[in-house]
């Protein structure tokens, strides 16, 4: 039996929860003998990481368990060590370089730092296998040649992001030229995007309407920046929306923007999931120039150099001039969740 540990509440519409549900949807089609362990609202005030630590320990000693699959949570290294003692394969899913996340989130608690150091050392040395979202994550923990690690980005659900769907109204929104959907986190370079929209107005005389969908720690700073540039009439903040509504919201703008900070790209890299969602929704894509699979590079319409306001404004202008052209449908079948799970199960079965 494969025991799957997802330290998220699968009842919510949060990004990590939705991604876990998508994976499980297709996992059921590939594997009949499995058990999912997640954290739901019935747990009350029990710390979810403590809950998963206990559950993973019990899972490692459960007589019917023959594989553990753990999405990273603090002290999951204990599960890896116990699985190794029992000679069970234990796979870890890594969506970030954990020590870099602490820096990005400005977490300086010594206990967190110690736990992170222990986890990273044990994962890189003793995990049977690892599923890494980016090459940067794989290279940090395992190097580029360790057969224990596979690079497997998050997938996209084509049925939900249907490029030909028609949406007449969402929360009274009118049509926008540019759109950003995602977390307003430190690694999202919305500062450059806002400055580029201002330059687009000042240099190219284009008063483009821009929709920002999402929330995060940088929200207040971005709102302040919009006001500073005098863009309050051009930039609209929708806030966080349910994941199920994202395909509809994407129909309200013509060009999707993926702005990422170069400092993060150099080490961690980035998942291409937002690029894929824009493409599946039939949007043009303007993206930070970042190393990615060649067959994905050909799908992006416009690249710009990281943190370059001038280059981004130039690419936005080019995209703006083509905004009313019919968008050619692009083949992203190799990036779907079904394709993702097929590759995942092939990798897991190779280690059994």
Radius of gyration (Å):
21 Å
The tally of beta strands, per DSSP, is: 12
Distance between the termini: 11 Å
Can you name the CATH architecture of the largest domain? 3-Layer(aba) Sandwich
For the sheet with most strands, the description reads: 6 strands, parallel
Folded structure, characterized:
By secondary structure, the protein is of the alpha/beta class. It folds into two domains: 2-155 and 336-351, Glycogen Phosphorylase B (Rossmann fold); 176-333, Glycogen Phosphorylase B (Rossmann fold). The chain is built from 14 helices and twelve strands. It has helices at 15-30, 48-61, 77-85, 98-104, 110-126, 135-142, 190-204, 219-228, 246-250, 262-267, 273-280, 294-297, 309-321, 337-351, and strands at 2-5, 34-37, 67-71, 90-94, 129-132, 149-151, 176-181, 210-213, 235-239, 253-258, 284-288, 302-304. The protein has a six-stranded parallel sheet with strand order 2-1-3-4-5-6, sandwiched between helices. Helix 1 crosses helix 14 (337-351), helix 2 (48-61) packs parallel to helix 3 (77-85) and helix 3 runs parallel beside helix 5. The longest helix has 17 residues, at 110-126. The mean pLDDT is 84.
Outline:
With 352 residues, the chain is α/β, with parallel strands linked by helices. The chain folds into two domains: 2-155 and 336-351, 3-Layer(aba) Sandwich (Rossmann fold), CATH 3.40.50.2000; 176-333, Rossmann fold, CATH 3.40.50. It is built from 14 helices and twelve strands.
Give me some keywords for this one.
352 residues, alpha/beta, Rossmann fold, 2 domains, six-stranded parallel β-sheet, 12 strands
């Amino acid at each position: 039996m494969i025991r799957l540990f997802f330290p998220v509440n699968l009842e919510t519409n949060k990004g990590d929860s939705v991604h876990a549900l998508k994976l499980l949807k297709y996992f059921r089609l590939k594997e009949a003998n499995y058990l999912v362990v997640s954290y739901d609202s019935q747990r009350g005030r029990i710390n979810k990481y403590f809950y998963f630590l206990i559950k993973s320990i019990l899972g490692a000693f459960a007589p019917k368990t023959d594989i553990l699959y753990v999405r990273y949570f603090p002290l999951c290294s204990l599960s890896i060590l116990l699985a190794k003692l029992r000679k069970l394969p234990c796979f870890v899913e890594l969506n970030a370089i954990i020590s870099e996340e602490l820096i990005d989130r400005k977490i300086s608690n010594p206990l967190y730092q110690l736990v992170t150091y222990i986890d990273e050392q044990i994962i890189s040395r003793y995990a049977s296998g690892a599923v890494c979202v980016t090459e940067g994550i794989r290279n940090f923990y395992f190097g580029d040649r360790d057969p224990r690690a596979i690079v497997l980005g998050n997938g996209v659900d084509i049925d939900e992001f249907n490029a030909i769907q028609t949406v007449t109204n969402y929360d009274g929104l009118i049509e926008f030229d540019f759109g950003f959907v995602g977390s307003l986190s430190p690694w999202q370079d919305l500062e450059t995007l806002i400055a580029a929209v201002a330059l687009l107005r000042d240099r190219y005389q284009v008063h483009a309407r821009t929709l920002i969908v999402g929330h995060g720690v940088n929200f207040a700073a971005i709102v302040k920046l919009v006001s500073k540039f005098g863009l309050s009439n051009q930039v609209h903040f929708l806030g966080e929306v349910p994941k199920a509504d994202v395909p509809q919201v994407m129909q309200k703008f013509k060009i999707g923007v993926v702005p990422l900070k170069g400092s993060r790209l150099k080490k961690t890299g980035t998942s291409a999931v937002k690029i894929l969602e824009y493409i599946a929704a039939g949007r043009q894509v303007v993206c930070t120039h970042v190393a990615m699979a060649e067959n994905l590079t050909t799908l992006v319409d416009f690249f710009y150099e990281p943190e370059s306001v001038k280059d981004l404004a130039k690419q936005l202008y080019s995209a703006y001039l083509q905004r009313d052209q019919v968008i050619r449908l692009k083949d992203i079948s190799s990036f779907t969740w079904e394709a993702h799970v097929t590759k995942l199960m092939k990798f897991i079965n190779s280690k059994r």
